[in-house]
User: What shape does this take?
Amino acid sequence: MNNMYLIPANTKSGKLIFNIFRPVDLMIALTGLALTLIMFFAIPSNELGATIIKILPIGIGSLLVVPVPYYHNVLCFIKDVYAFFSNRRVYRWKGWCVRSEYGQEQQ
Assistant: This one.
């Protein structure tokens, strides 16, 4: 094969728990589940609003760890979006032609 290697697309999934979750993802999901269970036992109520508040921790935790295309999960997507908007986005060219005539006109 002319010294070319073929790497499978799912090589990182072997490092994950259940081939989907990182340890942080499981902690988020289990913390949401634990908070939801505690709230169900601690807060007695038959109203819809209180039930929604009780279910909110597991709902948020599940949404953060659900897999999305091109990212590991929603949490990784949110971190990348934050990094994009909080970092500098104006880049100064310092490549091989920085001292050429084209580089002088742009400065």
Q: What stands out?
A: DSSP finds four helices and no strands in the chain. The radius of gyration is 24 Å. Residues 23-42 form the longest helix (20 residues).
